Amino acid sequence: MKKAKFASFIFCGIRFYSQNFQVGYYGGRVNSRPLFLYQPVLRIFQCEAIFTKNEGRYSNLGAKSTKNESDFTL
Fold first, then answer.
1. What is the model's pTM?
2. Which domain of life is it from (predicted)?
């Protein structure tokens, strides 16, 4: 369980930063202070909460599989 939670934090962090660097770099609008100080922590925790609530979508992280996987949205 601890391993899966740690892996989900890494997954969410990578996901958040890759999305925002793309948007910021190609869109030309990087809101530097809120994005890099406040938002990553909030987003990673939100994503991690969704991730652990809907365990089983990523079974390679050692989570239990569930029947209802269709409502997993990030």
1. 0.28
2. Bacteria
**Do 35 and 24 form a contact (C-beta atoms < 8 A)?**
yes
Instruction: Name the residue type at position 15.
Output: R
SS3 2: helix
Q: pLDDT for 28-71, tens place per residue?
A: 445 444 445 555 666 666 666 666 565 545 544 444 545 555 55
DSSP 6-46: HHHHHHHHHHHHHHHHHHHHHHS---HHIIIIIHHHHHHHH
Amino acid sitting at position 42: L
